[in-house]
Amino acid sequence: MSLDHATNIVKHQTVTRDAFLGERLLIAQPARGFRAGLDSVLLGAAVRAETGALLDLGAGVGTAALVALAHHSALDAVLVDNEPETLALAAENIAGNGLSSRAQAISLDLTASGAIRAKAGLMTDHFAAVIANPPFFTAGQGTLAKGSARAAARHMDASELDLWVKTAAASAAPEGEIIFILPAESLAPLLAAFDTRFGALTLLPLSPRRDAPASRILLRGIKGSRAPLTLLPVRALHTGDGNAFAPEFEAILRGTARLLW
């Protein structure tokens, strides 16, 4: 479901209001550029923490965090982004979905120093879950998107990614979970950044169809754990040769199931 409408918050661009989780959530987002979709829903549905605070790094319009809040009524959330227009839409989505008492959006560069993060109000050693869907091309790969916001949403080098993971590590509570989703080709730098900071790493590869190579990965780590890595079997998103989602993922998209892994 998508409905174009004018907005006073995001100027000079069309915004759509899109239904997620079987219309449990309505998300305002730019009609062009980076748009929340499958990855955002999977990330939000992957959160295991049922109580406490959730931190969404680079939250965009807030879809992943709001999906997690829809699944866990005892969670609250802080959404962080440094793009003003995107952050304004995140705040609109929080209010529009009746979640103002449970979520807030704050402006912050995630690569900033700990002192700057603290001044912005981002607490350390606090969050039961930290999630992120970072920009997904290594610098020099892919085609630059038109418009600075879209380009920023798609490009990050390994050193920047490490800073995001460093911020996640500082923000998570002891035994808190940290979950990132990225294209499969970004696994090496992400795994390296996680391995030096977290234990009990769990890697879930996702492929478009059975017998196809994995196209995206979910990686979870636990702060303070020393448990070894677990590599889960690849799960196929679609059935057969068509575009129909496998029953597990269809249920996740409709909001009737979480991603269990």
In short:
It is built from eight helices and twelve strands.
Question: Characteristics of this structure?
Answer:
single chain, 261 residues, alpha/beta, Rossmann fold, three-stranded antiparallel β-sheet, globular, disordered N terminus
Q: How many runs of DSSP E, i.e. beta strands? A: 12
Q: Give me the CATH superfamily.
A: Vaccinia Virus protein VP39
Radius of gyration: 17 Å
Identify the CATH class. Alpha Beta
Q: What is the residue-mean pLDDT, rounded to a whole number?
A: 89
Helix content: 25-40%
Using the coordinates shown, work out and report the CATH topology. Rossmann fold
SSE order: EEEHEHEHEHEHHEHEEEEH
Helices and strands: which structural class?
Answer: alpha/beta
**Strand content range:** 25-35%
Number of DSSP helices? Answer: 8
- Give the N-terminus to C-terminus distance in angstroms: 29 Å
Biggest pleated-sheet summary: 9 strands, mixed
CATH architecture: 3-Layer(aba) Sandwich
Spans of at least 5 consecutive residues whose pLDDT stays below 50 are 1-10, 139-154
State the shape: globular
Integer tally of domains: 1
Descriptive account of the structure:
Helices cover 28% and strands 29% of the residues. The chain has 261 residues and is an alpha/beta fold. The longest helix is centred in the middle third of the chain and has 14 residues. The two termini are 29 Å apart. The N terminus is likely disordered.
